[in-house]
Specification:
This protein is of the alpha/beta class. About 35% of the residues lie in helices and about 20% in strands.
């Protein structure tokens, strides 16, 4: 057991700050605006981390050792452990999320007989941590009627030492006051409403080359465009040892003539593109009035929605940032950054929009829904939280907010308008390729322009079905949906087919749903999603915020999304798809310009390949305000 409860120091890391040429072994003079930090962790840290698996932690209270000196256990007590340890661990694993942190703790303390244990309080915490309890949350509870220096575990063990049963004391323990504390006093999660100048752009690259070519919207292409669009900001790019030469070479080309420096941070870990999710930009106000930008990191970086899968590479990539001058603050809470968004209104009231998946992640740690929302508010330095339904994977693919003329304006997806535009473009592709009669195509496009969705689907659907057999379509059909090397034909055709499904679902009632159970369930899922989206929009509108519907589509790999962008002073960096859907890009840009009365410049950032991988530009970057 002691092995699983061991502690170790992260130690002193050896880092090197060198000009690009020295690292890349380039014969050319490196740009003075590019620096390289090669993060070299001590061998004992790498050895300890190497045993951590990319999976749902079996130890419910697991916490990654980012900024703490204690290495949390990642495996449950094995067959060689005492039976009471195995019993307590099984209890925590099966009941923590259901019964809650306090009742599960009382029962685990009783199983382990800690009321009879001579160990000091810290040793008892180690034992409870070893069976999977998130013991770092105990500091947020003040036992009822106790002095402020009486810990929760001392209170529980005292009651049990009186000979009372665990079940009899649970009601008393449940009266403990919940008083969450911020990890760092004065920390405030950054609002992304376009008011603050950008001081830093954080990116992650696993490669330094394009997926196909410039303009393909891959991770490197997105990075290139953001570096150019945010010329005055510093750029910090995390990558791994294997890709560093490629990334450095790319950074050198981007650095020419720009005002802000570029820092490439190389480490042993291999981060994916999604810099938004493993840490959120925040500002810490010091007592002397200075402001420091920091990254608020979760308990551990994770992937997935239904199952929260620990991602070691995304987690430990953050450790290297401090060597490049960006402080990382680790929260005891679990979150994915794309599901948190701060809105600040003209009165200064700050609201944190929270996707409901983030609430579930933390109720799995034993907190109640109300406790999760309260803890997030305190941790993020905001006045209140507003939970939103899981319409999409993350809320940042459903909306973004801007302060415009002292009013909060929220851009949201208008799935119907997006589907009409996509089907109209697809109809033209089929007609131009000789797969659809030009007269039928003209009638379909005219009906869509008038908003007659049912009529358009009735005309186009039978023609499309003729082109395939049993739901399978020849490559020759998909090829009509491409305009060049960087335009993915099959992916574009899939978007067209999805748009047809969406329009069909929007115009089906209970009486004319398909009889096939699978197709029926699919159509009903599209309808439920739209119902949930309408409910979310109503919730936001009830806050007094202006809701602006943009022809934009969020559907994981088949999305055509225009709201997953960045608001910066005077501009909106809009995700764009390009290629065959360039017309739709311009339609969305025109709609956004109109929302802000032409006072906000819309800057398209091509991200087609990125959108085909579940995200867009807000998912792929993290921007920090001036400190």
């Amino acid at each position: 057991m002691m092995k699983r409860s061991q502690t170790f120091l992260l130690g002193v890391f050896s880092t090197t700050l060198l000009p690009v040429a020295a690292i890349a072994q380039s014969t050319e003079t490196a740009s003075p605006t590019v620096q390289v930090v090669r993060y070299q962790p001590r061998p004992e840290l790498l050895s300890a981390i190497s045993v951590l698996r990319a999976d749902v932690p079996v130890v419910r209270g697991f916490r990654a050792p980012l900024t703490m000196e204690v290495f949390w256990p990642h495996e449950l007590p094995d067959a060689h452990s005492p039976p009471e340890f195995r019993a307590a661990a099984a209890l925590v694993m099966s009941q923590l999320a259901c019964d809650g942190l306090l009742p599960t703790t009382v029962r685990a303390v009783d199983i382990l007989k800690l009321q009879n244990h001579p160990a000091m309080g810290h040793r008892k915490l180690l034992l409870l941590r070893a069976v999977g309890l998130p013991v770092d949350l105990y500091d947020w509870f003040r036992p009822p009627g106790s002095a402020s220096d009486v810990t929760l575990i001392d209170y529980i063990t005292t009651l049990l030492a009186q000979g009372r049963s665990a079940e009899s004391i649970i009601p008393e323990v449940m009266q403990a006051a919940f008083l969450p504390k911020p990890t760092v006093p004065g920390l405030r999660l950054a609002a992304e409403d376009g008011r603050s100048p950008v001081s830093l752009v954080r990116l992650q690259l696993s490669r330094g080359s394009y997926w196909r070519a410039p303009g393909d919207g891959s991770s490197v292409d997105v990075a290139r465009q953001l570096v150019d669009a945010l010329d005055g900001a510093r750029v910090m790019i995390s990558t791994n040892y294997e890709a560093q030469a490629e990334v450095i070479a790319a950074a050198e080309t981007w650095a020419s003539g720009r005002k802000g420096e570029i820092i490439v941070v190389a480490s042993p870990w291999k981060p994916e593109q999604w810099a938004q999710d493993n840490g959120k930009p925040a500002v810490v106000a010091a007592s002397d009035g200075r402001r420091e930008i920091v990254t608020l990191a979760p308990r551990y970086a994770s992937r997935g929605e239904e199952r929260t899968r620990f991602d070691p590479d995304e987690t430990f990539t953050l450790v290297a940032l401090s060597t490049a001058g960006l402080r990382v603050v680790q929260s005891p809470l679990l979150f994915q950054g794309g599901n948190l968004l701060v809105i600040e209104d003209a009165s200064g009231r700050r609201t944190l929009l929270v996707g409901e998946a983030e609430i579930m992640r933390n109720t799995a740690l034993g907190l109640t829904r109300e406790q999760v929302l309260g803890a997030l508010a305190v941790e993020c330095g905001i006045e209140r939280c507003l939970a939103l339904p899981a319409v999409s994977f993350h809320i940042d693919v459903e909306l973004c907010a801007r302060r415009h003329r002292n009013q909060v304006v929220i851009l949201v997806n208008d799935e119907g308008a997006a589907a009409r535009g996509i089907v109209s473009i697809g109809t033209e592709c089929l007609s131009r390729g000789g797969k659809l009669n030009s007269q039928i195509a003209e009638k379909v496009r005219a009906a869509l322009a008038r908003g007659e969705e049912a009529k358009a689907v009735e005309m186009i659907a039978p023609q499309v079905l003729k082109l395939g057999e049993g739901g399978a379509y020849p490559e020759s059909v998909a090829e009509l949906f491409s305009r060049g090397e960087t335009d993915a034909a099959v992916a574009n055709f899939e978007r067209f087919m999805l748009a047809l499904d969406i329009l069909a679902a929007r115009n089906m009632g209970e009486g004319n749903l398909p009889s096939d159970p699978v197709t029926r369930a699919y159509i009903m899922s599209l309808q439920r999603r739209q119902t949930e989206r309408d409910r979310m929009h109503a919730t936001l509108r009830n806050e007094g915020w202006r809701i602006a519907a943009i022809p934009s589509l969020s559907d994981e790999r088949r999305g055509l999304n225009y709201v997953n962008g960045f608001h910066v002073p005077g501009r909106y960096l809009m995700p764009a798809y390009g290629g065959v859907f360039a017309e739709q890009d311009e339609t969305a840009a025109k709609a956004i310009r109109s929302v802000f009365d032409g006072e906000v410049e819309v800057v398209p950032i091509l991200c087609g390949e990125t959108q085909r991988r579940l995200g867009a530009i807000h998912c792929a970057a993290s921007i920090y305000p001036e400190g």
